[in-house]
Amino acid sequence: DDKEGTVYATFDYANVLPLSKFVLNSQGNLVQTYWDDSKEDWKVVGLAPKDECDVYGTCGAFGSCDSQRTPICSCIRGFEPKIIEEWNRGNWTSGCIRRAPLQCQRVNNSGEEGKTDGFLKLKMIKVPDFMERSYGSIDGCRKQCLKNSDCVAYAHDVGIGCMSWSRNLIDLRKLSIRGSDIYIRLAYSEFAKERHLKVIIRISMIIGAIAILSTAYYFWRWTPKIRGNNMSIDISYRD
Q: Which InterPro entries match (predicted)?
């Protein structure tokens, strides 16, 4: 880095490759090209970022980026846009905030402890930076996170162990392959609708089972009598 602000880097290839170069274009993309002797021209072999979701912090804190959706940014469940006007205009960098405070926040603010927080599982996610690592099973990771009032999310990988986060989650991205499962800490109240739906489903299943058993019993109880009556009528008619 000289006085004019020029930055450069040098590196060596492990194997002999064609002449290659990296160029930072006017859009801020880093483009890798190599010289194609057969076409006597530079051929693009790499581009970063590939899409808007590759840009760090596009969706802000607790926002998830999915390049296959429109709009690409959405607040994860349990959160809402921090500045709704900016969010609606497509400026998502302000991110999202919680709808309901966590248990420790409720205790600090009002002295009301309430019920224990839960975790929302997000599948196939590019996990954020600034993780804290520890060893343990996935159930152990969950218990560690619940004991730590600063923990806002955790994940587990067989080769890494426990990963936890104690600050705003930035740069969450939905992936189609090679993603990880991450568990987001949410207030107990955020799962109320889910629990209510499960109760409704269970009650419906019980009512359905009772109806089926009642119908089956009716046919079992009355079908022989109906057949017997029909036979009596038939015999009387023949006589």
A: Pan_app, S_locus_glycoprot_dom
> 57 — alpha (psi -120 to 50), left (phi > 0) or beta?
left
The domains of the chain, with CATH numbers, are: 1-48 (no CATH), 53-192 (3.50.4.10)
pTM of the model: 0.66
- Give the closest residue to 79 by CA, choosing from 96, 92, 64: 96
CA distances from 237 to 227, 230, 233 (A): 15, 11, 6
* pLDDT, tens digit (0-9, with 9 covering 90-100), for 72-109: 999 999 999 999 999 999 999 999 999 999 988 776 66
Which residues on adjacent β-strands are paired with residue 79?
A: 98
